[in-house]
Amino acid sequence: MSDIINLLFAINDDYVEQFKVTLYSLWQNASKKQMAVYLLQKAPLSENEAINRFCQELQITYHPVIIGEMAFEDAPTTDRYPETIYYRLLAQDYLPADLERILYLDADILCLNDIVPLYQADLKDNLYAAASHTSDANIPELVNKLRLGNFEAESYYNSGVLLMNLPEIRRQVQKSDILDYIATNGRILFLPDQDILNALYGHKVFQIPDEIYNYDARYNVLYFARSSGKWDLDWVLEHTVLLHFCGRDKPWKKNYRGRYAALYKHYQQRVKKIP
Predict the structure, then answer these.
(1) CA quadruple 12, 17, 22, 27: dihedral sign
(2) pTM confidence score
(3) What values do phi and psi take at 85, rounded to 5?
(4) How far is residue 15 from each of residues 25, 73, 168, 198, measured CA to CA in Å?
(5) Which of 180, 183, 191, 263 qualifies as a FRET site for 212, CA 20 to 30 Å off?
(6) Pairing between strand 161-165 and 128-130?
């Protein structure tokens, strides 16, 4: 396995600053600093030069990947779920053919600890590694399986953190299958790209613990209860690797009052000091 940590993001111009915070937090806490970041974008971002300078300061290799087509123009999109969310499903078609592994991350994530153990996880013949936010076998998970029709999957996975096994994905994931599924099931898709991932490939996902690798910042009370009081703030700071600010409330907004607001602002201020 290469010593380079390959990272994948898909953003538009509205998420450049958030992307930089996520990337900086990954770099800051990684035991291996040799990184390459691939940024999927529909058309060249207006901030590409600034992003490149930022990456150079961290000695990260920057690869803008321009999609340049309307592959998902008929897919369900909203202001909250723009077309870019679909790009991760076909990332393998746009990335270098010799790339074997890459970690996709949403740009509303903060890294608190070393990402390298996750990156080096043994995926065996699975397509992805991902975490579930419904790991207690509750009713919503059963509803999702009924809705999407994939009962072989162990859980319903969040698509905001995906470790990708690119050789297997290239063999098994087809654009035509994804577009056909959207055409047939578009009306039942609540979280479009995530639903497609679970419906078509959920049974080929290696499950990773969400409290470590995809901690949903909205539900700290539930995590505390699930762990019988073990997973408190100190535990999260010491053990959680990826803190995910899911939902509409985001820590860069002035009215955000979540538990981790100050932590996010700390990294935000560090990023602002980088030329």
Answers:
(1) positive
(2) 0.90
(3) -65, -20
(4) 16, 21, 30, 25
(5) 191
(6) antiparallel
Q: In residues, how long is the chain? A: 275
pLDDT beneath 50: ranges in the chain = 135-139, 148, 150-152
| Amino acid symbol at 58 | L
Do the Cβ atoms of 43 and 68 come closer than 8 Å? Answer: yes
Amino acid letter, 13: D
pLDDT at 139: 43
- Residue 8's pLDDT is what? 98
Give the model confidence (pLDDT) of 21-31 as tens digits. Answer: 999 999 999 99
> For residue 187, what are the contacts with CB-CB under 8 A and spacing of at least 6?
none
* Domains assigned to the chain: 5-272 (3.90.550.10)
The pLDDT, as a whole number, for residue 80 is 63
Residue whose tokens read 């779920």: 81
Asked if 7 contacts 102 with a C-beta cutoff of 8 angstroms, the reply is yes
Measure the CA–CA gap between 88 and 244, rounded to whole angstroms. Answer: 17
pLDDT of residue 195: 84
Tokens of residue 16, six digits: 């450049």
d(CA 171, CA 158): 23
Are 113 and 240 in contact, with CB atoms under 8 Å apart?
yes
Q: Which residues contact 18 (CB under 8 A, 6 or more apart)?
A: 11, 107, 108, 250, 252
Contact indicator for 103, 164 with CB cutoff of 8 Å: yes
DSSP three-state, residue 58: coil
Whole-angstrom Cα distance, residue 86 to residue 77? Answer: 10
Cα distance from N-terminal residue to C-terminal residue, the chain:
33
The DSSP bridge partners found for residue 269 are none
